[in-house]
Amino acid sequence: xxxxxxTLLSLGTVVSTLVGSVYATNVVICEHRDFGGACLNITPKxxxxxxxxxxxNDKLSSYKVQDGSCDFFRHANCVxxxxxxxxxxxxxxxxxxxxxxxxxxxxxxxxxxxCCNSAYYAVCAFGCSTKCRADQGCQMRCAQDCCxxxxxxx
Length: 154
Hints:
Elements: H1 5-19, E1 26-32, E2 36-42, E3 49-51, E4 62-66, E5 68-75, E6 79-86, E7 89-90, E8 108-114, H2 118-130, H3 136-146
Antiparallel strand pairs: 1-2, 1-4, 3-8, 4-7, 5-6, 5-8
Helix pairs in contact: 1-2, 2-3
């Protein structure tokens, strides 16, 4: 099966709309353990320090970092580093009982790098490699074109 260039470009536009930017870290923070209570979805720019609002200050008990790496800080303006999360989540910050030092302690977040959005990469690479057939060089170029910086999320 072969696709025309215009079909692949149209598919790429649809995919970008559906799954977002190639490089977009997404952070979900929740008020209670196990992603309970109020939750907030944040899409920070790379290396931007996000100060949590007064309502969210010192309330984070669970989080999920998708397609990137983020640092969590005890104070506003990204002061006093607590921990780093590379494309992972934690349903109980501070351990199962929430008694650890980091539960309800976060005031700011910074995501110094992101990685290729997994959903975008999967669709982009499939669409690109479909036109390659068995040409290994073409397939390698597809991987580079779909993830230019070469850092794919696991």
